[in-house]
Amino acid sequence: MVGLVKQNFQKNKKLYNQIEKKLKNKLEINCLITQVGSTAIPNMYGKNIIDILIGVKDDIEFKKITTKLINIGYFGSKNNKDGIYNFFSSIETETGSGDIHIHLVIRETERYNEFIILKNYLLCNELEAKNYSNFKKEILKKGIKDRKEYKIIKTEYVSNLISRAKKFNDSHVI
Q1: Domain residue ranges of the chain, discontinuous segments joined by +
Q2: Rounded distance, CA 65 to CA 63, Å?
Q3: In terms of C-beta density within 10 A (0-12 exposed, 13-18 middle, 19 or more buried), how is residue 54 classed?
Q4: Residue 50: phi, psi to the nearest 5?
Q5: CA–CA dist 148, 10 (Å, integer)
Q6: Confidence at 29, pLDDT banded by 50, 70, 90
Q7: C-alpha to C-alpha distance for 106 and 86, rounded to whole angstroms
Q8: Rounded to whole angstroms, how far apart are CA atoms 165 and 167?
Q9: How far apart are CA 110 and CA 116, in angstroms?
Q10: For the chain, which end, N or C, has fewer CB atoms within 10 Å of the first or last residue's CB respectively?
Q11: In terms of DSSP H, where are the helices of the chain?
């Protein structure tokens, strides 16, 4: 079941800062940790899940961080086998409001860059952020409540959004 709420940006930023501090202490590797997703953008609707991007320098760090995240209680996806990305959740079953999602990605890959470019694009383009937020609400208005179906519909929109974000980023690079 999917439920959307207007994100409390300040509250979620504070929560993210607490999680980031704990992760840095537990991971013991100097990696880049960044808040991403709807909770990182003011005035967005979302599932109120804190999305965190952890960027590591290579496959050795990737494997070390994977092990450490599992050891401190995160649940890794069994579907990500490409060696540059893995998804972790704070609970094993279907996640909901207040949960934590970690996206572990090797830096300097397209996947990593897409997270950063999309976040920056939405932060500096209020209209795109509003349209994305409204799109998610429209999915639910159509009666779609199943998380898998919701994700499939949202994924196509996000792919197009990332394409626009890349074009914007390319045209604004100095």
Answers
A1: 5-169
A2: 6
A3: buried
A4: -80, 115
A5: 29
A6: confident
A7: 10
A8: 5
A9: 10
A10: C
A11: 9-27, 59-71, 110-124, 126-141, 147-171
DSSP-based three-state secondary structure for 31: coil
Tokens encoding 50: 């804190």
Chain centroid offset of residue 69 CA: 16
Q: Please, are residues 87 and 36 in contact by the beta-carbon 8 Å criterion? A: no
The topology (CATH level 3) of 5-169 is Beta Polymerase; domain 2 (3.30.460)
The 10s digit of each residue's pLDDT in 100-111 is 999 999 999 999
Would you state the structure tokens that stand for residue 98, as one six-digit string? 């207040």
pLDDT tens track for 44-92: 998 889 999 999 999 999 999 999 999 999 998 877 678 899 999 998 7
CA dist 33 and 80 (Å) reads 20
Backbone angles phi, psi at 53, to 5 degrees: -100, 125
The two structure tokens encoding residue 167 = 């074009």
